[in-house]
Specification:
By secondary structure, the chain is an alpha+beta fold. Helices cover 33% and strands 24% of the residues. Helix 3 packs across helix 4. It is globular and about 40 Å long.
């Protein structure tokens, strides 16, 4: 990911309008969970047993629901747009919540399918670890991890 970031930083970029609109729709807080507003249309969570059996914990459920395929929102330069999206997410989150979040931006340039860039997040909870930042270099695809409790990315 580090090599890709150097290439991306060299060219100015902007966030495609539909990505900006998605972010500006904001978040929906339901009980102790926070979701992208556009991806979660209910005012209640599934049964606790369902979440535990299917996703291990609430963070796993949030991370699964809050998965956005950024390539669906841009025609090209998905990684560049993804980095801007992540930066704007960070600002938006910090402006609205005192709780911390953990986010992940993944990227792959697939010869058959083209650019694949996803963004996911969950609220940071004690004892619920989805992304082990100590092992992030082991991911098969380039990854950018974000923990909003730190000063930067």
């Amino acid at each position: 990911m580090e090599n890709l970031l150097q290439e991306v930083r060299a060219t100015p970029a902007f966030l495609p309008g539909n990505m900006a609109e998605f972010l500006m729709a904001g978040f929906r807080k339901v009980d102790d969970a926070i979701f992208f507003y556009s991806l979660f249309d209910r005012d209640f969570l599934p049964d606790h047993e369902f979440i535990k059996n299917a996703y291990t914990d609430l963070s796993g459920y949030e991370f699964s629901v809050n998965k956005l395929h950024l390539e669906d929102y841009c025609d090209s330069e998905c990684l560049r747009s993804g980095i801007i999206f992540a930066d704007k997410f960070l600002s938006l989150w910090r402006g609205q919540f005192s709780e911390s979040a953990v986010a992940l931006l993944t990227y792959d340039k697939n010869p058959e399918f083209g650019e694949i860039c996803t963004f996911q997040f969950h609220k940071k909870r004690e004892g619920e670890v989805i992304i082990d930042f100590d092992k992030i270099e082991e991911f098969s695809n380039p990854v950018l991890g974000i923990d909003t409790s730190f000063g930067g990315k």
